[in-house]
Amino acid sequence: MFRTMLAYKLKDQGKVLVKVDRFFPSSKRCCGCYHINKELELGERYWRCPVCGAVHYRDKNACYNLLQEGEILLNRWTGGDSALILTPEGVLSAKKTLSAE
Ligand SMILES: [Zn+2]
After folding, report:
1. Which pTM does this prediction carry?
2. pLDDT one-digit tens code per residue, 70-90
3. Among 27, 42, 71, 89, which has the highest number of CB atoms less than 10 A from its own CB?
4. Distance 54 CA to ligand 1 centre (A)
């Protein structure tokens, strides 16, 4: 419901809502070096990247990663990447494959 309303408001302004894949590792990926911390537990609010040493607050790190991934998807779409689709409702996302459904 929230996503539908947000997409509607953005479409009104000539913008699109970019939907990042639900399995994108936003919390576990270091926004500095892109290392994926597979050991990160749900209750850990802060963690240090074992590769670059950056200390992350879980939610803030996820925000940076989601923003960056959204920008990448948007740039791919404007570049004509046919693996992405914009719905009539104004939501940009990767096309669903049969295996993902
Ligand atoms: Zn790192």
Report:
1. 0.85
2. 999 999 999 999 999 999 999
3. 27
4. 6
User: Does residue 44 lie within any of the structural domains?
Assistant: yes
Task: State which H helix or E strand residue 27 sits in.
Answer: none
**pLDDT tens sequence across 29-62:** 999 999 999 999 999 999 999 999 999 999 999 9
Residue 78 CA to ligand 1 centre (angstroms): 29
Instruction: Decide if 101 is inside a domain.
Output: no
pLDDT at residue 100 above 70? no
Q: Domain tally for the chain?
A: 1
State which residues form the domain around 79.
2-95
Cα(99) to ligand 1 centroid in Å equals: 31
Determine the distance separating the centroid of ligand 1 and the alpha carbon of 9, expressed in angstroms: 36
Q: Is 100 a domain residue?
A: no
> How far, in Å, from the CA of 24 to the mean position of ligand 1?
17
Q: Is residue 64 part of a domain?
A: yes
